[in-house]
């Protein structure tokens, strides 16, 4: 007969989400704490956001991962602040949360104006290759709206010393698989909503239907 599983979170109330966030720093409690917070969902968002300010880097990483699942706009400023954290794991985790699919819906992602300058600098100058890789993936969906992003991705594709960073950046430049896939969607969105002035603002978007491939 299978023995019942003993909880590692004995003494912690089922709704004490702040204590569960603190427990993310304790190796033997971290896994169960993470799963309980996932199960709590939006009820635990406040505790997850507070975890982005935690003194323990592992807690910050875990809360970035949690907010990757349960993104809310009030978490964005703290996620953006963590892009500047000295620990590359924290920078990478916050980058991934900001780059997740939930943040890529529509033609303008939340906090895009605030995130892009930081991500551009990280793509070209961050010391850790995984952070540069995540920066390339975060920047990619903006390539059709920003010449700065396009230029930075071309530079990364041509000159980054890490082959994976070069590969990911290459996905998002003209001829790349993700560039081509998202270009058609971007054209359609612009055609639906744009005034003639948008063509002047985004000259690198070909809006001529007859030339669309």
Give the mean pLDDT: 84
Number of individual domains: 2
Number of helices: 12
Provide the succession of SSEs.
Answer: HHHHHHHHHHHH
Number of strands: 0
Per-chain topology:
Elements: H1 17-23, H2 27-40, H3 45-51, H4 57-69, H5 76-82, H6 88-99, H7 112-125, H8 129-139, H9 147-159, H10 163-171, H11 177-193, H12 196-201
Helix pairs in contact: 1-2, 1-3, 3-4, 4-6, 5-6, 6-8, 7-8, 7-9, 8-10, 9-10
Question: Explain this structure to me?
Answer:
The protein has 213 residues and is mainly α. Helices cover 61% and strands 0% of the residues. The protein folds into 2 domains: 14-103; 109-197, no CATH class. It contains 12 helices and no strands. Helix 4 packs parallel to helix 6. The longest helix is centred in the C-terminal third of the chain and has 17 residues, at 177-193. 31% of the residues are buried.
Structure characteristics:
213 residues, mainly alpha
Write a brief caption for the model.
By secondary structure, the protein is mainly alpha-helical. It has helices at 17-23, 27-40, 45-51, 57-69, 76-82, 88-99, 112-125, 129-139, 147-159, 163-171, 177-193, 196-201.
